[in-house]
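Writing this down once: the sequence line spells out the residues, with the fold written below as integer tokens. I am pasting one below:
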Amino acid sequence: MFDNLAEKLQEIIRKTSNEANLTEENMADAIREIRRALLNADVSLNVVKAFITNVKEKAEGESVLKNVKPGEQLVKIVHDELVELLGGKNEPLNLTGNPTLIMMLGLQGSGKTTSCAKLAKKIKQDGASPLLVACDIYRPAAIIQLKTLAEENNIDFYSLEGSKNVLEIIKNAIEFAKTNNNTVLILDTAGRLQIDTEMMAELMLIEKSFNLNEKLLVIDSMTGQEAVDIARNFDEQLNISGVILTKLDGDTRGGAALSVVYSTKKPIKLVGMGEKIEPLEPFYPDRMANRILGMGDVVTLVEKAQKAFNDENAKILEESMLKNSFSFDDFLKLQKQMKMLGSLDSILGMLPIPGLKKDDRQKISHEGEKQFKKIEVMISSMTPHERKNPDILNSSRKKRIAKGSGVSLDEFNKFIQQFNMMRSMMKGFNNFANGFKGNKNAGLSMLKQAQAMKNKHRFK
């Protein structure tokens, strides 16, 4: 998401960085380009006007600081405005109810039912006990879909067969939750092809009858400007508590996200990626602003790594590294856990790599994924004994494995060379770690270096 906007803004900032000083003239040029980039990203005109006005006022208010490079000054101003435009700060879910009631809202095709399952998976991952409640009394297919998703992901499910009374369904679901020890109820309400009076009347009746902790509107991020009207209509009638954006990885423009938050003054609380039932992710405006401006999102990457690398596997890999016995089996385990972080393309998008354009990033990730598959085939062509003992690979074994995996001997030898370099690096890390333990000044030295790097790259 935001790929096109990010590319344009980064290009504008690079141009401004080449200027010796920040003047009214080059700032006006930059602002003109930013306005065009936002409009091309499908951001609504009202939002663009407000954004540009704020950027211009702040730029003029800076009094053209002499000791600050033009690019850095522009980055700071645009970054701060993007953060505000995206909601300012992360807004966590309100899960204080007993049980918690979350009403999911949205039109048909927005990904509402799938998002219910993704939300339940996130809540379960966070330690609570979710219950998916089928509240669509008009579409049996929606109930079947929700039940199937619940079964496939080992999530509790409730429906009241034959009932056409949505209030009765929710009331009975609450009683069921109390006996079944479910702490969070996720209500999958009926959607429509378009907003109508009957739909809103039913949703308002649910709102008045129960103490809802959250009223979350699910919006397809690829909807474009229509998303603003949808969000505004739901908010005017029901006073939504937040937004869930789906298909965040599929929309290269991203104007809907910027426009929805500004138009409703309600936060994006969660986002969904792809079609697979992966847990919804919290939305952080500052992290998204960083990514848009090419500054990466290392914090999110680290958080994903912490979840992907469970303690047991991490301990096994650590022991292998410290004993200098890192094997091909360990390499496959490491690669498998890396895949849990997401695609190589998404990982590259979270790293602060200046000047890396979308097309280049996709080419790198495509080639990288191909190489990962080749490596898997090569290692799979080894015997179990060879996978555990890399040092026994002699000339005849290498020829056999290369032939069995369908690669040339040169290509296989190149992989072995890279693998051995990786093992050497790990051995060096082991020696460093042992030396670090006995050197009281090492920690202070590293801390000073890290602080110096932070000061060098932070905003002025």
Notes: Residues 63-67, 432-440, 446-451, 453-460 have pLDDT under 50 and may be disordered. The first strand starts at residue 100 and ends at 105.
